[in-house]
Each structure stands twice: as C-alpha cells, then as structure tokens.
User: Fold these one by one.
Assistant:
Number 1:
Amino acid sequence: MFAPNVSLTILGIIDPKVYAIPYIILIIIVSIVALALFARFPSLRNYRRRRSIIFYTVLFLALMSLIFQAYDVGSRAFVGYRVESDVRFYPETTNQLNLTCSSDGDRSCSFYMVIRSVNASFPAQTQPNYVQVNSTLIKVHFTLSESWFSKSKATESLLFNIDKNVTGFSFAILPDSWSKGCLFVSGQAFVSYIWNGTENCYMLGESQLWVT
C-alpha cells in the first residue's frame, strides 16, 4: 500500500483564559491594597508630592505588568489546516498541492508543517519558507496574524511529481514546531489519491480528518 506512517496524538484543550485567573486575582488584590493605602494615608491623594508620584508610578507599573502577563498567558491562536487542491492529478506532469492553514484567536503565531509523501516526490524549490529535508519530506513555514473579527488564512502551493507506474500516492501532514500560544484544533492529517482508469488520472481516495 501507499499509506505513510502517521502518528498523531490529540490532547484535550483547556480554556486558555484559565491560565490568566491568578494574574486577575493579583490585579484585584493590588487594586484593593492601593485603595486601602489611599484611605489610610490621605497625603497620597496629593498627586504633586514626590512620595505620591513614586507611589503612582510603582502602582501603574505593577498593574501594567500584571495585565500584560494575564493577556500573554490567556491569549491563544487556534489553528486548523487542510488540503485545498484539485480532485484530479495526472501522471508524467508536475502537479500542485495547496495546503491552507487558518487561525482563530487573539494572538499571532508561526509554525512549520511537515509533509511526507509516498509514491510522490517534491522537486527542489528555492522559497524562504520552504525546507526540503529530502525528496519525500518537506517543512513549510506559516505565519498567521491575530484574527479579531475573521479568520487569518494562508495557503502555500507545493509542487510534486507522481512516481511512475504506481496505483496511488499519499501525503501525511502534521505540525512540527510552533510558537507560544499556538494550539492545533483540527487538521487533515492524511490524504491519498488512487488511480482511476476511466478518467485516466488519480482521484481522491481516503482523507483522515481530526478535530479536538
């Protein structure tokens, strides 16, 4: 057969906002302490005094630091990927595989997708976001921006050649490495194409999708 060795472990996803709770609690505590100091020491209300200015500065920096930390640990990019190509591929010609990644979330992310082929090979390409390990294994870099109102999407077109005299070919697609806050929630981890003698081309055979 022409199925690659695919291993994919899906982990349960915890709501990222949970990680921000300790910082939110600290923000509330700092605010309460500041109000208590204002009540206990009326002189702090005189914003022109040097001691008051120092107090305001320290309070502002502490709150801004906690707010930034809460945002940083609580924001995520929820990424999905799938093949968006023609349903027909032809032998003895260079074909094109389109891989699309999309993201929902409140932070940008960057990552590499690993694509392993069976009975097909990738010609050498000189692209800055394309790493060719060998003729059947490549790594493609994606960068997706924050998606506040709509999905952030990017598509990479990858050229490949089908091996001669094969009844089918396939691709295994998995994330390889990614930036902080990037969570993969769905993907098309495997897709295969089978020879169709009636149409004289390779057509979609099997597709393995996963969703967390």
Note: Residues 3-14 have pLDDT under 50 and may be disordered.
Number 2:
Amino acid sequence: MNKQHVIKRLFPEPAVSYFLFGPRGTGKSTLAAQRHPDALYINLLLPQTRRELQARPEKLLELVHAHAQGGVIVIDEIQKVPELLPIVHILIEEHRDWKFVLTGSSARKLKRSGVDLLGGRALKKTLHPFMATEVGELFSLAAALEQGLLPLCFDGQQPAETLSAYISLYLDEEVQAEGLVRHIEPFARFLETLSFSHACTLNISNIAREAAIKRSTAESWLSIAEDLLIVFQINVFTRRAKRLLSTQPKLYFFDVGVFRALRPNSILDVSSETSGAALEGLVAQHLRAWIAYTPSKNTLYFWKTKSGVEVDFVVFGENGLWAIEVKNSQHIHSGDLTGLKNFQQDYPMAKTLLVYRGEDTLIKNNILCMPVDKFLVGIDPGKSLF
C-alpha cells in the first residue's frame, strides 16, 4: 500500500468553509478525499471541467444545488478558475450549511484577479510536507535530509528523479502555463541561484547579479516564488529589543528535498555547508507546520544582532517564547551556545534549545541540548514545542 495513504495527517480541519493552500505534492487532494469521501468533488486540473466552468461559472450553482444540504463541496485547484469564487460566495450566503474546501497551490492568480477570497467567509489554512511525528517509525533523518518529506516523493523508489520531475512540472504548469514569466529558462536559473540563499540572510542584489538579471526582476521573481509557496522568508525578532539588530530576513525553501534538487553540486562545495543548510531547513519546515497546525497563534522569527550574534529560530506566540539553535555536528562546543546565552540575557523568560547530530540529551549552561531527530519526532501540534 502507498505509504501516504496510511499516514494520518495532523492538519486540524476547520468546521466551516476554508481555503487549503499548499505547494503541489503536499497531499491536499488526498487529504480532502480521505476526510470527505462523499463530497461533491470538482477537479479543476481536468481540462474539460476547467473549460466548462470557465465558460459558464454559474454551472457551479446547478451542481451544488443538486448536492445534499449540509454536504461538503471540494473544489480542487481553485486558482485555475477564480471566476468561481463569487459563485461560492453566493452559495455560502444561502446558509444551507454547505461546507466548501477550496484547495490551491497558489494564491497569485486569485490576487491578480482582484478576488477578495470570500471576504473572510472562508478561513485560510496551509498544508505542509509530512512532519516526522506523522510518519513515525518511517522517519529517517538521513533520508529526510536528502529527499525531503513531500508525500509525493516520500514512498517513491527514485526520489531524486521524482523531485526533478516535480520541479519541471512546477515550472511548466504553475509558472509558464499561468504566464507568470515571459521565458521559463531564466526563471529556472533564478531558482537555482536562489537555492544558494537557502537558510541564509537574503541579499537580493547578490542574487540578481549571480542570476544575471536586474534587481527589479529578481524582486518580482522572488515574489512569484513566494506566491507559489516554493520559498518563504522569516524576519528578525525585534520585540523589546535591547541591542542593535539586523534588518534583513532569511530565506528557506518549503521542503529540504526541493532545495537539494535545485542546489547544484560542484567540487567547490563544502559538504558541511550544504548539509548544514539542509538540516536548518528541515527544522524550519517542521516549525512552520507546528505553527500552522497549533490552535494558538505563533510566529516564526530568527534573531541576529548587528555584531553578528545569531539564533537560528525564535517562535513567539500566545503561549510562550522559544529560541532554537541548529548545529550540524555530533559534538557541542562552548561557542555553539553563544547565541542562545545572549538571547537568554535579553529574554530571561525564553525557553532555549540547541539541537545537534549527537545522541545524548543534556543540559549545558542551563540550555537544553537534544538530538535533532528526537526533537523533530517529538514536535506535535497538540503539545508545547519542548
């Protein structure tokens, strides 16, 4: 049996209508089908269905009115026909207890179309790649660092080939087919260049220079990559700052397997740099999933002073303040704790954690140190981070 069909997702589904955004391959369609086997299912990836509803959006009224009152209607890849959203709005206003699940791999076309995303009448949720705790005993840190945790690739026999095909499909169907860029080859080169900024402070001027494009083009294409949910940025934590802080955000790809597939390897590479960026990205995508699936409101940041003292991740929310440092080494050195100790001085209420590639859980200088695989498997949206 396909592994992703037996893995229970921790995504907490709202009781009301909602948008379910997420990159392709995160399992949105599978989740909707599993949770709502009796739903009216409208798949806008099917050319005939898409053409019919583009030509006559009001047909959705007829389809839904024939569906049972109080039933669920799943519209897959809603961004393909944004003209349907005013019809969905009308149907929600009818108060017949229909629940709409509107999946999408991009909100860019919806934004460009001037659609108001139902004026707040549907929640906005995100589905992320698998979490380690979701796959349980199937989780392998070594495998996750190489091929990521996309359900699409998780149980494949040739994950590298699957990821390469996945990126080509994204470029062809999400970028070129939607007319987001004029020529796909320079954009593909831009994404490759962007992979060198994974887990790094963003410098758009350097990226533009390396990709041989204008800065304004780099900014526009970065916005496209964000809207397509391929990359995300996190900002510096500045609440009640006691020091001069950096202002530049950090950038990550949404899944470490996609980062690995885009990042070219050469004899000039230092393997520890690439594997360290992959490890940091794997932690980042787990923290994002925990934040998205946890009922309380939290935000992901990092912390970096003007003098260069840094903490990889800061999670701040209604229930706490957590600071996390990621080290791609099997041993902990005193200098590894510098950032966390400085953060503790400024925020004594913070819970601090260093995760590393070793095997022992211990306390050093009042800082919890834990094997990274143990930490990842223990991240549960129903519990505190640590």
Note: The chain has two domains: 3-126, 132-378.
Number 3:
Amino acid sequence: MEINVSAKSVETKSDIKKFLDFSWETPYDSYDVPILDSVIKAMLNGKHPSCKYGEINAWLFLKDNKVVGRTTLHSNILFNKKLGSKVILFGCTILNDDIEVFKAFFNLIEEQALVSGASKIFGPASLLPNQQGGASVSNFDIPGFVDSAYTPEFFVKALDDWGFLHENDSQTWICDGIQDDGFDPESLFNFDDTNFVSENLAIRYGDKKEFDEQRKVLLPLINKSFSTLPYFTNIDEQEFAFQTDGLEYLIDESLLLFLEKDGVPVAFVLVVPDISDFIIKCSGNLNMFNQLKLYFSRKKYRKSAILIIKGTDPDFAGSGFQTLLHRELFKNLKAGGYETLFSTFVELTNPGSSASYLRAGGRPLQDFAFFSKELETKKIANTKEIADTIETTNNEAVVSK
C-alpha cells in the first residue's frame, strides 16, 4: 500500500493555527514546554527582530490530510558569518514517530539546502542557539523547563540514524537541596569581602521600574561574555528587547544580580521563577487572559527557579566574581523559600560554569546537544536525486514510499 506524506509551506492564517496547535503526541506533550505562540507568530509573519537577518519559512507535514509534523527552516547571515559557511537551521520542530514523516522532513531540509546554497544543516534552533535551541539527548523521562528543550528519544534516534552529529555537547543542571538545614551559601562560596573596597565593587539587583534601563546596561556585557562561543552571535537591542519582553512582570528582583566594578557591569546572573507548568497547561498561549492569570497567581511559582543566563567579562575571568554572585544568589533563593534551581545547558568544555552547581550540591540533569550534518557537494548538486523522491506541485512536496 502506498503511503504519502506531504510537506506544505505555511502561508495562511489557517496554516499558522495548525502550526501552533500541533504538539508532541501523548505523553511527550506534558514533558515539553512549548515555545510561546507570540514568538512563533512573530517568526511567521516577519515581525520577529531576527527576520532582518534571514527569511523564515515554516512547513506542515500532512498524512491523509492530518498534520503529523511541523518545522521552520531558515538561514541567518550572522550565524553564517560565525561558522564561515552557509547553514540552514531547523527549529520549532515536532514530528510524529513515523518513518515516513522523518523521510519527508529530511528530504525537505536537503531540498531547501539545495535551493539556498547551504552546505550544512544545524538545529534545533528557534531561531538561533542563543535564543532557544538544542535537544535533550538522555534521561527522556525527565520533563523540560522554560528555555530548555524536551526531546523525545525517537526523534533523537532519527537524527542519529540519518547521519547527524552532536555539537556543543552540554548538560542541564539541578540543585535541589537549597532549603536543607546544612545548606550555607556563605561557606560554600568563599569571597573576600574586603575586595568590595579595594576593587570598588558593588552588587546591583533587578528593578522592575528600571528594567528597560537595566536591559541596555546588560546587553553589551552579555555579548562580550559569550563572544568566544562557537554558536553565539551578537544580540542587538531589538532582539534583546523582544526576548525579554514582559520579563519585568515575572522576575523576582532578588534573583537578577549584576556586579559593577568602578561603576561598570563586569558579571551577571539572571534567574527567573519556574513557570514551566503554567506554560505547558496553556500550551504556550500567553494571551491577555493567561497573562493576567499568571500575574495574579505568580506567588504559586516560588518553589523552583531557572538560571537562564550568566556571564563574566572575559577581561575579568578568574576574578571570583561569579563566586560572589552565586553566594548572593543562593542566599536569596534560600531566603525566598525556593527549593530547587534548574540551569539551562552548560557546555562540557566550560567546567568553570558548572563548578558553581557542584559547590551547591547540584548534579547534571540531562545531556544536551545540537545536531549538525555536512552536505556533500556532490549530493547537493544532484538535483535529480532529490527530484526522484520529492515532487513539487502547487507549493507542496510529496514524498512517496
């Protein structure tokens, strides 16, 4: 019996709704924290700030007129420059556990790579690794959390089987003994406080009323802190404002810390209350009603927190500034009644960053990675090979068994 899976580009409002509504099959949907609808809509209608660096195309995969998968495909000129070659990125990707769906997905990427002239596939990234991306590749019975993907084992296996390689191997982390009687940040994170005077140091905290100004102050430090990482591209003001829009209503001001030396920020830590369960329950739809619901119930989400990002000006590496900030962070977490701290992925090549979690009695939670695949020049140039498996008709590519 012939089985057809088609890949249809997302163009209409109806297509966008289908794209937003599609999620992992049960039980995986309750483990994955979806990307916010507002972010995906901005990607698809060209209003996301990153759209100026490359067009974003979205696709639905259909089988018997039923949606069985979705993905975005795009290229970003800043990412291409960073890697030194043209790359096609896939993101927002959800696929049913079906070999024919995988065939349609991989054939579509290679077709689009051919059209765009890309020589490498990279992802998942929505839209870039420094925005949201990567995949959990171990402990598949552990749910994801905000800013950290959950990826079903069958999808990871499909990527491996199709010749994708792991890049930027990392781990997410958990510290879950914060309220233990013996947990003492002062003794765990030693810092000589006489340095406050000798080095003219000052700790600043988040301020909801001054959040716009604090964003502008922190952005140059964020870009400088991560400039040497292989996947990181500089974030501009528009992108940063978009990524942090509404954060001032969510943050616990005591969990956003930055250290100034001579009045200039040199290190920072951003931790937010964990609202993962809320985002899952509302399926990523933070409309006005759900925003108000979250705002008035925000005190419910003070048992766990998520370390989103931290960094130090490379000129002050090894200064102990992160030790100081983590001392204050864990003191504030304990005082605030938080029991658990999760951390987004930390590269295995960056043991200094994970050392703070080890000091606090933390442990790795899940292995994490990006996937990449180099496309052979001969294969990219062979249009007939793709045409034999993909027939393009009226904006629809059909893959047949």
Note: The longest strand covers residues 363-374.
